[in-house]
Specification:
Chain B: This is Transport permease protein. Chain B: Belongs to the ABC-2 integral membrane protein family. Chain B: Its main location: membrane. The complex is a heterodimer. Chain A contains twelve helices and 14 strands. By secondary structure, chain A is an alpha/beta fold. In chain A, the strands form three sheets. In chain A, strands 6-7-8-3-9-10 form a six-stranded mixed β-sheet, with helices on both faces. Chain A has a four-stranded antiparallel β-sheet with strand order 2-1-4-5. In chain A, helix 4 (108-118) packs parallel to helix 6. Chain B is globular. Chain B is built from ten helices and no strands. Chain B has one domain (3-247). The longest helix of chain B has 32 residues, at 55-86. The two termini of chain B are 25 Å apart. The chains are: A alpha/beta, B mainly alpha. Chains A and B meet through helix 3 and helix 4 of A and helix 1 and helix 4 of B. Bound molecules: adenosine-5'-triphosphate and magnesium ion. Magnesium ion binds at residues 57-58, 98, 172 of chain A. Magnesium ion is lined by residues 57-58, 98, 172 of chain A.
Chain lengths: 325, 253
């Protein structure tokens, strides 16, 4: 990586590692689970896919991984068409499924060895040992999977997905049924993987998880991708708080003396709304209130509100058309 | 060719076999021994020779085929049905393996297991009756070809089945009758002419006849026809599996 010239590096990194084009899925029963999805995942990023139950997250992931056939559209993964050049595409992808599907009677070691072979990689016990150690599974390597707890099984699935050194890792709800400690372990591991250059796509119901982990966030609802946004940008929107002051006397224009603050009038001049950034040190509220007092502007009530990612999420999901516009 | 992938599947399946070695081996050996005792010794002693072969020896090829068919079908159908049932098939579907590699892995392992079992039964038979093998190479050939063909057939059943009941129903309702009526315990020449004609529609007749020829050089139907029929059935199964994988029928939604 270090040796390659900067120019070619940036050119390479601008080519998405996954490119989803016009993908739709109608299940055998006639239910349309995905509607014309277009999505680019950048090399090396952590992308979080959010959406309510049944939105189509697992369906989308399953199509990219080759488990479900798309009804329409095409997908390029790591430079290879997933249908025409499925070997190369799939060899680059690791998947941790949402459900805990494991071979109950196999040992941990046997199952990760199997996964590595299945994906066409020559044996490498040293690498597999490292994977198991990183996931605190090394002590359990000879145990049968059925003897492990749910959280441990989830780790085994992660180890299986990593066993063939994928450049793209899908984590379908990695924190479902996982305690706080394991969740933090997992976040740490995901960050380490990202530092090593792995691209990670995860789905989650925990907004906190997306906030902590993701570089970008996509929201999917009823089979439609209704938002894809840089997390920082989203956080800035989210970082905006509003202070609403209900005035005793309605005003028609904002006095010039208050031009230092970003104020808007609403409720026909009965309310003054001040928007401020929670990320900065000084909110400017104290000064504003002092200035109001100095200019004899009285208010009978004040209330502050904040839009969380959760709010944005909920409003998006319930009003998809507005969000798109 | 994803050689490591084939090897992984093959080893996984063989490990499953060796984990259940007692059930896998003890049951068929016991069943066959019972057949020898009942048909070979008790009843066989009162039966005349068939084509100048003692009855006990005459039924050996048929009994081996009987186990071979049952074991091939049950091994292969179970092998592919289990991951579907447990959900672990997601990994197979998301792996860079082609259908032919999946097939070589599963069918190869199932066939290996049933050939080993066939040999074991032949060994067991030695304790009950003396028999000779006129064409050992052909005998092995028939064993392998039948094991592969019926493992493939079992694989298809495993793909098609969506419940344990369905997994059992074809072996029980179709394969068992066909094997019993396939001339394992008698020569079809002993049947009335009309039943001889009907028997010719039973593929198992050709298998057992060909296999028995490799032992004693006696056959109900021409050996060439037997070999042709096995290959024909093999081709039908291969084509069907190819179609299943191409269309994603019952595997990829
Ligand atoms: N095999 C199937 N046959 C028919 N419909 C299906 C099938 N699998 C999923 N669906 C439907 O497709 C829709 C999307 O399902 P999907 O599993 O992709 O949702 P999800 O976003 O992953 O949900 P969750 O958050 O609950 O995991 C759901 O309405 C589901 O009922
Ligand atoms: Mg899901």
């Amino acid at each position: 990586m270090n040796k390659s010239p900067t120019a070619s590096l940036s050119a390479e990194s601008s080519i998405p590692i996954i490119s989803v084009r016009g993908v739709s899925k109608t299940y055998a029963g006639g239910f349309q689970a995905l509607k014309n999805i277009n999505l680019d995942i950048q090399r090396g990023e952590i992308f979080a896919l959010l959406g309510p139950n049944g939105a189509g997250k697992t369906t989308l992931i399953s199509i990219v991984c080759g488990i479900v056939n798309a009804s329409a559209g095409s997908i390029i993964a790591d430079g290879h068409d997933i249908a025409r050049d499925y070997r190369a595409a799939r060899a680059a992808i690791g998947l941790v499924p949402q459900e805990l599907h494991t071979d109950a009677f196999e040992s941990v070691w046997a199952t990760v060895t199997f996964s590595r072979g299945l994906f066409g990689k020559p044996p490498n016990p040293t690498y597999l040992e490292k994977v198991l150690r990183d996931l605190s599974l090394w002590d359990k390597r000879n145990e049968k999977i059925m003897a492990l707890s749910g959280g441990m099984k989830r780790r085994v699935l992660i180890a299986k997905a990593l066993s063939h050194e994928p450049t793209i890792l899908f984590l379908d709800e990695p924190s479902a049924g996982v305690d706080v400690e394991l969740r933090h372990d997992m976040w740490r591991m995901v960050r380490e993987l990202r530092e090593q250059g792995t691209t990670i796509i995860l789905t989650t119901h925990y907004i906190e998880e997306a906030e902590q982990m993701a570089d970008r966030i996509g929201v999917i609802s009823k089979g439609e991708l209704i938002l894809v946004e840089d997390k920082e940008v989203l956080m800035r929107k989210l970082g905006n708080k509003q202070l609403t002051l209900r005035l005793r006397q309605p005003m028609s224009i904002i006095p010039a003396e208050l031009s230092n603050w970003s104020l808007t009038l609403c409720e026909h001049g009965h309310a003054l709304v001040y928007s401020f950034d929670t990320q900065t040190e000084e909110t400017g509220i104290a000064e504003l209130l002092r200035a109001l007092g100095e200019h004899g502007i009285e208010f009978k009530d004040l209330r502050s509100s904040e839009s969380s990612l959760e709010d944005i999420f909920v409003s998006l999901v319930h009003r998809p058309m507005e969000a798109q516009a | 060719m994803n050689f490591y992938g084939i090897r992984a599947i093959y080893r996984f399946e063989m490990a499953r076999t060796f984990r259940t070695l007692m059930e896998s081996v003890a049951a068929p050996v016991l069943t066959t021994s019972l057949y020898f005792i009942v048909f070979g010794k008790a009843i066989g002693s009162r039966m005349g020779d068939i084509d100048s072969i003692g009855y006990g020896a005459y039924i050996i090829p048929g009994l081996v085929m009987l186990s071979l068919l049952n074991e091939s079908i049950s091994n292969a159908s179970f092998g592919i049905y289990m991951p579907k049932w447990a959900g672990t098939i997601y990994e197979l579907l998301s792996a860079p393996v082609s259908w032919i590699e999946v097939l070589i892995g599963y069918v190869g392992a199932a066939a290996t297991k049933s050939v080993m079992l066939g040999m074991l039964i032949l060994g067991t038979a030695r304790f009950f009756v003396a028999y000779q093998i006129a064409h050992p190479i052909w005998m092995i050939g028939f064993l392998l070809l039948t094991a592969v063909t019926f493992s493939l057939f079992g694989f298809i059943i495993g793909l098609w089945a969506d419940s344990f009941q369905k997994l059992q129903v074809i072996p029980m309702l179709i394969v068992t009758p066909l094997t019993f009526l396939g001339g394992a315990f008698y020569s079809i020449n002993m049947l009335p002419p009309i039943w001889q004609q009907i028997s010719l529609f039973n593929p198992v007749v050709y298998l057992i006849s060909g296999f028995r020829w490799s032992f004693y050089e006696i056959a109900d139907v021409d050996v060439a026809v037997s070999i042709g029929m096995i290959f024909g059935f093999l081709m039908v199964c291969l084509t069907f599996v190819w179609w299943v994988f191409k269309s994603g029928y019952k595997i990829r939604r």
